[in-house]
TrEMBL record:
GO-annotated biological processes: DNA biosynthetic process
Native species: Lacrimispora xylanisolvens
Occurrences of domain TSCPD (ranges): 587-690
Protein name: Vitamin B12-dependent ribonucleotide reductase
Catalytic reaction(s) noted: a 2'-deoxyribonucleoside 5'-diphosphate + [thioredoxin]-disulfide + H2O = a ribonucleoside 5'-diphosphate + [thioredoxin]-dithiol
UniProt keyword Transcription present: no
Top-level taxon in the UniProt lineage: Bacteria
SUPFAM superfamilies: PFL-like glycyl radical enzymes
Lineage, opening ranks: Bacteria, Bacillati, Bacillota, Clostridia, Lachnospirales
Cofactor(s) in the UniProt record: adenosylcob(III)alamin
């Protein structure tokens, strides 16, 4: 099997994601499966059948230690919260930097840092407060690269901290803490005070001075301000901390304490804890029984057990690869894994069930119960064979409310017989943004974001060509049922913005009942959604037992996230802004014959839009001044990266005077490349390569590609000004790679056009 057969010949985007993100050193698909599965044939079968995939770090990095690469398999960590002194604050920054350098994201809680105005015994006399150090941690996140991307960071603070109001407001300044998500650890006491419109005390005791800082606030007014910030900026998120601490397998374990959450908040973790993730594709478990499509419960439960084993194999293999000793110790002692799901929306569509309906809630409740029981059973089986995780206290675990509510009698009996569990944490639901885009299915527990998306190529004269791409499950249904207009789809096709938020919360709640970690999740709401409705949404989330939730309102002020607003916004770069060229660019080469000899011209283009990005020029054995060619190539590249259109660059190159050497050779040998000087020849070669690139992209996304297979189903729109809400001309918050809209799903930015993801 090759990647085209695996993902489908028409899934060009998925193939590009695999090639650019997960493939190592031109390995074949079968070699990749062997590397990623670690030789486990059952796991390899699940990957090949698209029933299971590890998270991105494992798909990319597993086995690379054999080549001397120091790269972690874990997506994220929680670092030890900084203590209330300057040394610890900067030690935390060092821990963040080291973790990012190994490819992991981080969560850090700043609740131990004294609030603004507190006394300090140094030259400052008074501290600038906990919030002032958020920019330090954000800057570290921005500085440390991870193979073309930046690390991910979550900063949290307790709702009892006197700096709470400053924390809430910080993201209203779009220049502050730009490289971190932020969340507040909300307690039940705070929410009860909100319900009663009662006063709430913010308090902090400084250990080294004994100073007690207190501030009384109105809980309802604070809650309203948090909701208003979410309405406008989609942050800070709310972590319902009492639910996090009480609804898991370690809630009775006195030695255990959560220190924070990972960047997308699906994994509450202790200090040094890591999240090792994988997801089962529920849409792959549709079977035909008596001419009716049903969910294949039997194979699903069997595969859950295989996946638990698979994640434990990765955990053991990757134990030496964690960046810090505290991380290696924590993973060894507690052995957290995070098995999740994706493709729920696709599953429901295949079964003809409306997402959010009572029928969908009932089915997901059954699936989630089966998932947790089989995960617990397999963890107990591994404990029986290998011994429980080192910190395991079986009596404390079996007495937790979560274990009692979720474990069937025969499974509980087996856990007791086995003497414990192999893992302290088993299930989570992560965003799965890139994985789901690669497979062409819905991510996490999200509804489908939209029935269709826009992709584009660019023409030399600035007339962008847009393609309407239907979401794969939508296209599949339309093909099977002879539907040509998405308006004719049945009512069980609901999208993220058309789904009532109450149904969205109920869906998350039924999964959270059976998930011992947490769920990364976003409720997408329309522009007209009011601040009062945001308050109602968060209050309902708390009442229904969610551990956390994120909202995104179409048209809010936060940048870098999808909006379907019809307001037209220029995509031009700001003056003086130079974009970075991705390593994924496609190169084309020409050898030019000039008046002085030969000139080698290499041009690089964006793989998704075909936009010209960079050029390298060098002379042959005989040719002109090499330093001149290098300088010219740098200036052309700078112009392209600064947003100057190729047409204008070529116009300048072709405005140069005739070169006498070029003219003589043209007259005598007649073997020169088109043009009358080196710059003019370069301009003509660039135009030719650009048009060739655009032609290839057109074939790739429309009609038949060069391999002879049908390309993605697409509807060409030349008159892009008539395109409606998905119009590429109306992009407000563009993807940094291809310039089209980003979706915000599961707390993660993902581009459905080029596969870019901030989270993976």
């Amino acid at each position: 099997m090759d990647i085209m057969e695996y993902l489908g010949s028409g899934n060009i985007l998925g193939q590009d994601i695999w090639n650019n993100k997960y493939r190592y050193n031109n390995e074949e698909f079968d070699e990749w499966v062997e590397r990623v599965s670690g030789g486990n044939k059952k796991v390899a079968e699940l990957i090949i059948s698209k029933k299971f995939l590890f998270a991105g770090r494992i798909l990319t990095n597993r086995g690379l230690f054999k080549f001397g690469k120091k790269i972690t398999y874990s997506n994220c960590y929680v670092v030890t919260p900084p203590e209330d002194n300057i040394e610890s604050i900067f030690d935390t920054a060092k821990s963040l930097a080291r973790t990012y350098s190994y490819g992991g994201g981080c969560g850090v809680d700043i609740g131990k840092l004294r609030p603004k105005g507190a006394l300090v015994h140094n030259a400052a006399e008074n501290t600038s407060g906990s919030v002032s150090f958020m920019d330090l941690y954000s800057a570290v996140t921005e500085l440390i690269g991870q193979n073309g991307r930046r690390g991910a960071l979550m900063i949290s603070i307790p709702c009892t901290h006197p700096d709470l109001e400053s924390f809430i407001e910080i993201k209203s300044d779009l220049t502050k803490v730009t490289k971190a998500n932020i969340s507040i650890r909300i307690t039940n006491a705070f929410m009860e005070a909100v319900k009663e419109h009662a006063p709430f005390m913010l308090t902090f005791q400084v250990e080294d001075t004994g100073e007690v800082i207190e501030k009384e606030v109105n809980a309802y007014e604070i809650f309203c301000r948090i909701s208003e910030m979410n309405w406008d900026y989609a942050e800070p998120g709310m972590l319902f901390w009492d639910r996090i601490e009480s609804w898991n397998l370690l809630s009775n374990t006195r030695e255990f304490q959560y220190a924070g959450t990972n960047p997308c908040a699906e994994e509450p973790l202790p200090a040094g804890g890591s999240c090792l993730l994988g997801a089962i594709n529920l849409s792959a478990y549709v079977a035909i029984k008596e001419n009716t499509k049903v969910f294949d419960h039997e194979n699903f439960t069997k595969d859950v057990r295989t996946c638990v084993t698979a994640l434990n194999e990765v955990l053991d293999e990757g134990l030496p690869l964690h960046p810090l000793k505290e991380q290696r110790d924590s993973v060894r002692d507690w052995r957290q894994i995070g098995l999740g799901v994706l493709g729920i929306a696709d599953l429901l569509i295949k079964l003809g069930i409306r997402y959010g309906s009572d029928e969908s809630i009932e089915l997901c409740d059954k699936i989630a119960k089966e998932m947790i029981n089989n995960a617990i059973y397999q963890s107990a089986k591994l404990a029986k064979e290998n011994g429980p995780f080192p910190k395991c206290n079986i009596e404390e675990i079996m007495e937790t409310p979560f274990f009692k509510a979720n474990t069937e009698e025969e499974v509980a009996a087996f856990v007791k017989e086995a003497g414990g569990l192999f893992n302290s944490q088993l299930l989570t639901i992560a965003p799965t943004g890139t994985l789901s885009t690669m497979l062409g299915i819905s991510g996490g527990i999200e509804p489908i974001f939209s029935n269709s998306y826009t992709r584009k190529t660019e023409s030399l004269h600035g007339e962008d060509v847009f393609y309407k791409i239907y979401t794969p499950i939508v296209q599949e249904y339309m093909n099977e049922n002879g539907i040509t207009d998405e308006k004719d789809l049945p009512d069980f096709f609901v999208t993220a913005q058309s789904l009532p938020y109450t149904e969205r919360i109920k869906m998350q709640a039924v999964w959270q009942n059976h998930i011992d970690a947490s769920i990364s999740s976003t409720v997408n709401v329309p522009k007209e959604f009011t601040k009062e409705e945001v308050q109602a949404l968060y209050f309902m989330a708390w009442q229904y037992g969610l551990k956390g939730i994120t909202i995104f309102r179409d048209g809010c002020k936060r940048l870098g996230i999808l909006t379907t607003s019809e307001e037209k916004t220029s995509q031009n770069l700001e003056r003086g802004h130079i974009v970075k060229v991705s390593d994924a660019c496609i190169g084309k080469r020409r050898t030019l014959r000039t008046g002085c000899g030969t000139l080698h011209c290499e041009a690089f283009f964006d793989p998704f839009t075909g936009k010209f990005m960079e050029i390298f020029l060098s002379k042959g054995s005989k040719g002109g001044c090499n330093s001149f060619m290098v300088g010219l190539s740098r200036m052309i590249s700078l112009a392209a990266r600064g947003g100057i259109e190729l047409e204008d660059i070529v116009d300048q190159l072709e405005s140069t005077l005739v070169c006498s050497s070029y003219a003589v050779r043209t007259a005598t040998k007649r073997d020169t490349s088109p043009g009358s000087s080196c710059p003019m020849s370069i301009g003509k070669a660039l135009t030719q390569m650009y048009e060739e690139m655009q032609s290839e992209l057109h074939l790739k996304y429309h009609g038949v590609n060069k391999m002879g297979f049908d390309g993605e189903t697409a509807q060409l729109k030349k008159d892009h000004n008539t395109y409606d809400k998905a119009d590429g001309a109306n992009v407000v918050n563009p993807c940094p790679i291809c310039g089209l809209e980003l979706t915000f799903e599961g707390g993660c930015n993902t581009c459905k056009s080029c596969g870019y993801s901030k989270c993976e």
